[in-house]
Amino acid sequence: MKPLTRLLGAAALAASLSCVAETGNDAATGQVALTVRLSDPGQKLLYVHEVIPAKPGPLTLYYPKWIPGDHSPDGPIEQVMGLRFTAGGQRVAWQRDELDRFAFHLTVPAGVQQLEVDFQFPAEKRVTPNLIDLTWDHVALYPAGSPARAQLFQPTLVIPADWQYASALETATRDGGRIAFKPVAFDTLVDSPVIAGKHFRSIDITPKGSKVRRWLDMVGDSAAAIGISDSQLAGFRDLITQAQALFHSHHYASYHLLLVLSDHTSVGGLEHQQSSDDRARSGAKMFADADHFMLDGSLLPHEYTHSWNGKFMRPAGLATADFEQPMRPELLWVYEGLTVYLGDVLTVRSGLWSADAWRAAVAYRAEEMTHRTGRAWRPLVDTTVAVDYSAPSAWANWRRQNDFYREGQLLWLAVDMKIRELSHGKRSIDDFAQIFFGVDDGSFVTHTYTFDDVVATLNKVQPSDWAGFLRGWVNGTDEHQVPLLSGIEASGWRLAYADKPSVYQNALENVGNGELEGKGINAMSTIGVFLHDDGKVVDVLWDGPAFKAGLAPGMKLVAIDERPFGAAVLREEIVKAKQSEKPLQLRMEHDGVSELHAVEYTGGPKYPVLVRIPGKTDYLQQILAPKPVGKGS
Question: What's the confidence (pLDDT) of residue 538?
């Protein structure tokens, strides 16, 4: 584990600078003025104007390609339109790089000291008539030739005058709807989103006695959307204290939990060191009922945990000089997998989930990973190296996609249990978290880590062959090499099946899982399919009952044993098939063809649950119990 001064160690910085130096550009030093204007929220267009200090001669400008937290070169360059460069009032010709569509080449005219840039960005999934969720990497070009941390930007946002806003950025001035933020380095700007809107609420959730401020900032499409209950708010307050009790440190000057509550924006979350960017999958209903809150309860704890794991402590391969240089994501099973584990544990310790809810979620995910048939040919580490958030859901079980999240959670539960067993209950993953992430309290200068650093810290907590254990898991492709359920079983529980869905699976089917358009029906444990609620087949279990009957993603289930398809009908017919011991007759439509497929399954309904193993200690009770809260920062 080596400290990384202002993001990059000397060797990495030298290598990155050698890459950008090859462009031959020499942008003038100075401050870039970046103004983003939302003139008509209903139109969802962002108007961008930049003033970039420049010297006469060749200049290359980059649009951010590799976005931290996305782990992929997926900057939305295809959205940029109306691009225009001017200098001294005259248009300046430009040319996109033939091999890199994120790079733009131009020649700054003689006698010019600054270049002006204008373009528009249609933010369909980030703006509604009532709000905006702005991420600055979507709306900025930056000069090649120097690290992002060395480029100073002065950002300004223009929004409706009656809207309120929140960000980790510090405000310099506000005049009506024009908000000028204090200048920051470009890497800090990209790491500092802004939410704003008509329906806005900012709640101070700073622990008593702490000088470090924390806020829960919410924006929604209605006043009702941000109507958080007292008990839910208490959970977010306790999240701060439980995280402090776990890590014994903080790595921000202040922190903003930024939450967008809308049915019309994109779904998900993105980590930042001094804030989060959270968009609830259940949109405006997150706080409205138990199903919606069940699904979104762990979102903010996950992104908050990333302030330590991913932002302050970052895999060395993900620490680059700018947003053009490729990242190496092979340690995402630590970056994301450990964050899922710790974030979900904090969700329970803070009271946002019950222990029953945690077990229901882990049972569902464990069952999902047991049906990842692609584990026979594709190791977990390959899902990190080839991370792709845009991969289709068809054949997901055989192809595998981004399993470093959910399988990563199972891996780190196994690590936690291994520490507890070897130390006879004296130590746990909490000790690892404090040692690994708790250094340099109060500092937010990024540190990097390698596989060897992870192993060394685990050995400091509890000596064992951690290198062999971890390599065997992440590189293994055989079920005997990858002890997928070992952590669950060592904790005193086991994966089993019930005839009724758990609270977690009920929520997924009632609300939707956020990864699909619409609600889904998970029948992978029975007939071997995952369906939309309209009957469209999303995924088919490789070599499962439906696969053997000829089903494939893209088909549509229209009838079961001559009864029109519906979720309730499917469940009823699965029960009848067990009683009659006869195949299910599924009528499928695809490509203009209607066919009957006989699916051989008579096992009845099966829903994943965790059940206690008699005679074994219940370690999950210990893992999920809130930690004593002392005087923290």
Answer: 95
